[in-house]
Amino acid sequence: MDRLAAAERALRHAAPHALLDSLRAVLLRCYSASDATLMVADYGVTSLRPVDAPADHSLPVHMGPAGRAFGSQLPYVEPAEGASELTAHLPVSVRGDRIGVLTVRLPRERFGATVLDELAEIAGILGHEIVVAERDTDLYLQARRSERLTLAAEMQWQLLPGRSCSRPEYELGGQLEPAYAVHGDTFDWSTSAEHLSLTVINGMGEGIEASLLTSLAVSALRNARRAGLGLAEQAYLADQAIYGQYRGLTHVSALLLRFDLATGRTRVIDAGSPRVWLLRQGVAEYVELEGQLPLGMFEETVYTAQEFTTLPGDRLFFVSDGVYDASSPGGERYGEKALARAIMNTRLLPPAQVPRAILSELAGHRGGPLPEDDAMVVCLDWHGRTADV
Predict the structure, then answer these.
(1) Predicted confidence band of residue 369 (pLDDT cuts 50, 70, 90)
(2) Phi, psi at 130, each rounded to 5°
(3) Fewer beta carbons under 10 A from the terminal one: N or C of the chain?
(4) Cα within 13 Å of Cα(51), Cβ side
(5) Taking the CA of residue 271 as centre, how many other CA atoms within 13 Å lie in the half-sphere pointing to its CB?
(6) pLDDT confidence band for 388 (50 / 70 / 90)
(7) C-alpha–C-alpha distance, residues 169 and 149, integer Å
(8) How far is CA 297 from each of CA 273, 302, 311, rounded to the nearest angstrom?
(9) DSSP states of 53-93 as a string?
(10) Is the dihedral of CA 44, 156, 267, 222 positive or negative?
(11) 112 within 8 A of 118, measured Cβ to Cβ
């Protein structure tokens, strides 16, 4: 059995909480590795936290060798002139969703380009197994916490499909703040052979009530989407579900989008306050859409999708009112100029890093931590489909 197959078999048969221990045994046997550690990114994407070591061993997410591997999503080997061992840091990701970093220490004489490629692939296999294992153990979710989540935030994070994803046609990333106390904002996506569906939601209220409302909205939209219904029908059925539960006393602002992967043809329903910004050929501008009623405001609301075309090289931003309505200590709104500047300042970052960077700029504008009101940013890079995809 070759080394990759041995690692994959060990991880596949390991107990959910024992993935790292099983992997260590394989790395020792097949690569003479003296140690292997796993660190996962916390909910705020500010630190890398060890899975099986004290929390005070955490590291800043974009500093040091491990942070370098996490940020670049490429293996990084620490320079070690004359040392008998080398330390390799491997990004642990699943389809573009950044989980953390696997660090492996092994003898210099056992190291080489082939070994590094194999270790990088093993880190990817580990990521897939972590996603599966999270159904059966809290270990990896607990490790992600630098502080306690509120109950509402617990519900919201469990509702998300992930924080980022990528395919040849697109890359996207999103972030919610305050990460440990978010309640009403969320996003959802689903991809098929021909389409990407993306939903951005800003729910009314605070705490558990807002989280319950958002959960109902997302579940209703997923139910309609999975039944094969179109965008307008999805909005209509979600609207009815929310109105039926709350009788118009509360509602959900939402953007529903459906991208054709082959053509970039995009259908959208603007049902509330989340806004769209477009960065095209170096110019950032707010996208005016035909505003329609929020979901659940009135009974029997009819929704109509409008269309535009997303071009290769476009970068789209989706932001909640917690971003553009945020105020400085002097009462100055963050507003369009500041947001356009933040969009330009982050243009060289990959989509998975952009939301965190913009929210950090927002915190700087406020002169301190983000407010109790939710703030959400989703960034989508559109590559389009080439003939060989």
Answers:
(1) low
(2) -65, -45
(3) N
(4) 25
(5) 33
(6) low
(7) 34
(8) 13, 12, 34
(9) S-GGG-EETTSHHHHHHHHHTS-EE---TT-SEEEEEEEEE
(10) positive
(11) no
